[in-house]
Amino acid sequence: MKLIFVSAPYTADGSRSGIEDNIARAEAISISLINEGWSVITPPKNTAHYERYEPLLQGKGYKFWLEFYIEILRRCDAIIMCSGWKDSTGCKGEYKYAMENGITIFFEEDGIPSPENSNLAEPISIKEAAERARKFQASLSDDLIDADLGSGL
Fold first, then answer.
1. In this structure, which long-range contacts are made by residues 45-49, counting pairs with CB atoms below 8 Å and at least 24 apart in sequence?
2. What's the pLDDT score for residue 150?
3. CA 98 from centroid of its chain's CA atoms
4. Nearest CA-CA partner of 100 in 120, 124, 129
5. Chain mean position to CA 71
6. pLDDT tens digits for range 82-127
7. Dihedral of the CA atoms 130, 104, 41, 153 (nearest 10)?
8. Three-state DSSP string of the chain
9. What does the buried/exposed string (b/e) look like for 86-113 if buried means 16 or more CB atoms within 10 Å of the residue's CB?
């Protein structure tokens, strides 16, 4: 079974209801992926509300969680970028890692992929991947991503 990483925003506007909405959206996407035959890792669901355990986590902050999930992403066959990912520091870092390391990238807006009908080595055309990368880089410089990831925000 192929493993897919669900890259979805978590903190939103920082409100409890915003977080709950993001968890519910990620959960719905995960269920659809499971029904298509994927094994799924869903960070917003996996560590939901761990922020309230910060004192028990010995000061591990936001940067720890970014590194934590990059380690998990490294082991995945694919990633699906969920709506709102361009507004999330964590999702942008996951996208960047996937691009740099040849992990198959899907986008929620294109629908739920099937692992059997997907060429995981090339799920979208090279031309399409390059075009998406150009659009992404036009909207956000690498320096900004690095600054966001390095700031621990």
1. 48/19, 48/23, 49/19
2. 45
3. 9
4. 129
5. 12
6. 999 998 888 999 999 999 999 999 999 998 888 876 555 444 454 5
7. -30
8. CCEEEEECCCCCCCCHHHHHHHHHHHHHHHHHHHHHCCEEECHHHHCCCHHHHHHHHCCCCHHHHHHHHHHHHCCCCEEEECCCHHHCHHHHHHHHHHHHCCCEEEEHHHCCCCCCCCCCCCCCCHHHHHHHHHHHHHHCCHHHHHHHHHHCC
9. eebbbbbbbbbbbbeeebbbbbbeeeeb
Token digits for 123? 């799920």
Q: Is the separation of the CB atoms in 45 and 57 below 8 Å? A: no
Instruction: Name the token pair of 5.
Output: 């990483």
Q: What is the mean pLDDT of residues 49-68?
A: 71
Residue 44 exposed, middle or buried by CB count within 10 Å (0-12, 13-18, 19+): buried
Q: For the chain, which domains are there?
A: 3-151 (3.40.50.10400)
Strand order in the sheet with 3-7: 39-41, 3-7, 78-81, 104-107
Q: Tell me, what amino acid is at 71? A: E
